[in-house]
């Protein structure tokens, strides 16, 4: 979004008075998943975006309005959108040297597929179509969760892009990533290697089933020679009204179960995981690896072995890098931190792995030194001092141990008995 040019004053509105027309787009935007017309007046259904910079610019500000309210409502099942705009006051260009208000709806229209409503009455009337909506694909998992004060039923379905109507449904569904997944981008649904896992809440209205969208995961199935695939998890989102109920864990476990059952799958990878997803993945992988013979306490204390990597890959489709990470978490569990020698050995073991990046830097600089003139080598040298390396290693290690401890806390209890 271009920067706002504020007039220097003299005639019209004074410069300071324009500040009231600057809005925080994160506060201005509100979402609702609407199951019935009554929800339109229910503020309890409202939730806020985590970010808006992907639509309204890095500063996440909108100029030209007071009391700005951007309404992004979706029918709960079909995800048919309504985009509405309300405000108390809008700046008058004639009174401030021609300065105009920012476009609000135009940036949204660039991301939303055609067919969204701008009239709230038409949107309300169309909610009845949700009654006939049924999930796409095949049911993979059904589970009950105590959420929001009651037991509720959730189901996960899996399919490619081919089911009739799903492409349009996905176009509407993926608009959420703009506001809840940083650095998000729409995927190319013309590529047949995409697989989708969509979670719904199954509930009843007058004895008839309804299926409200809860979240989704996209997985790209890379080809692996000669006749295998290597799935990579790309996007995963559980919508805010359904968070904090363990549904993300259920969805990821469903994905694991689906691919573990396919012999053609080599291992499962993840594209640029967020911190929250990393915690979720580490928790599930540790929970599963704890049951493997190669990950038992007596073997963990020996060190990471090829046996661990192979068993995690063959039985759980966990790749070698992640298998090593799981090993470090579980070895921390069996390491007595009160035993100075044992704890020291553990720290050194992890730091030796972290130190690989510095050894690579050393090798790269040694190669450069051979091919560059002395003055050129000096100009390009970026090697850190020994003290800086030690400080960096300690910082990286401490962050890892804090993360590992968080995972172990979640696993505590019966899972670790």
Automatic annotation (TrEMBL):
Catalytic activity: L-lysyl-[protein] + acetyl-CoA = N(6)-acetyl-L-lysyl-[protein] + CoA + H(+)
Residues the UniProt record annotates as site (Interaction with histone H4 N-terminus): 194
Localization, UniProt: Nucleus
Main location: nucleus
Keyword Transferase: yes
Highest taxon in the source lineage: Eukaryota
Recorded coiled-coil stretches: 383-410
Positions contributing to acetyl-CoA binding: 243-249
GO terms, biological process: subtelomeric heterochromatin formation
Recorded GO MF terms: histone acetyltransferase activity; histone binding
All residue ranges annotated as the Histone acetyl transferase HAT1 N-terminal domain in the record: 21-182
Annotated signal sequence range: none
Active-site positions on this chain: 271 (proton donor/acceptor)
Region (Interaction with histone H4 N-terminus): 58-60, 220-222
Keywords associated with the record: Acyltransferase, Coiled coil, Nucleus, Transferase
Residues covered by the Histone acetyltransferase type B catalytic subunit C-terminal domain: 281-332
The enzyme's E.C. designation: 2.3.1.48
Record's GO cellular component terms: chromosome, telomeric region; nucleus
Family: Belongs to the HAT1 family.
The protein, known as: Histone acetyltransferase type B catalytic subunit
């Amino acid at each position: 979004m271009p920067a706002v040019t504020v007039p220097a004053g003299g005639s019209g509105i004074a410069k300071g008075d324009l500040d009231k027309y600057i809005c925080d787009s994160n506060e201005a935007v509100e979402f609702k998943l609407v199951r019935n017309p009554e929800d339109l007046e229910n503020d309890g259904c409202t939730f806020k975006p985590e970010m808006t910079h992907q639509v309204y610019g890095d500063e996440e500000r909108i100029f030209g309005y007071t009391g700005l309210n951007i309404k992004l409502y979706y029918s709960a099942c079909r995800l048919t959108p309504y985009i509405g705009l309300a405000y108390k006051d809008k700046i008058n260009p004639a009174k401030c040297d021609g300065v105009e208000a920012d476009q609000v709806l135009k940036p949204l229209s660039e991301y939303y597929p055609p067919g969204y409503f701008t009239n709230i009455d038409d949107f309300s009337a169309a909610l009845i179509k949700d009654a006939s909506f049924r999930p796409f694909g095949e049911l993979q998992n059904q589970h009950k969760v105590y959420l929001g004060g009651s037991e509720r039923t959730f189901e996960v379905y899996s399919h490619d892009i081919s089911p009739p109507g799903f492409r349009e449904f996905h176009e509407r569904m993926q608009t959420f990533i703009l506001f809840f997944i940083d650095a998000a981008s729409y995927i190319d649904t013309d590529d047949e290697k995409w697989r989708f896992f969509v979670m719904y809440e199954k509930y009843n209205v007058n004895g008839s089933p309804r299926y409200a969208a809860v979240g989704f995961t996209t997985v790209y199935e890379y080809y692996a020679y000669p006749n295998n695939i290597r799935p990579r998890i790309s996007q995963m989102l559980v919508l805010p009204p359904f968070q904090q109920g363990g549904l993300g864990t259920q969805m990821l476990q469903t994905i694991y179960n689906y691919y573990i059952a396919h012999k053609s799958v080599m291992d499962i990878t993840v594209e640029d995981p967020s911190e929250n997803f990393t915690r979720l993945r580490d928790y599930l992988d540790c929970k599963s690896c704890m049951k493997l013979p190669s990950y038992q306490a007596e073997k963990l204390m020996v060190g990471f072995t090829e046996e661990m990597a192979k068993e995690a890959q063959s039985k759980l489709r966990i790749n070698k890098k992640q298998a090593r990470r799981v090993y470090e978490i579980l070895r921390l569990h069996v390491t007595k931190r009160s035993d100075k020698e044992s704890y020291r050995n553990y720290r050194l073991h992890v730091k030796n792995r972290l130190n690989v990046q510095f050894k690579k830097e050393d090798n790269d600089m040694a190669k450069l030194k051979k091919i560059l003139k002395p003055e050129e080598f000096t100009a390009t040298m970026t090697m850190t001092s020994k003290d800086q390396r030690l400080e960096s290693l300690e910082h990286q290690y401490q962050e890892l141990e804090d993360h590992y401890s968080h995972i172990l806390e979640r696993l505590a209890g019966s899972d670790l008995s």
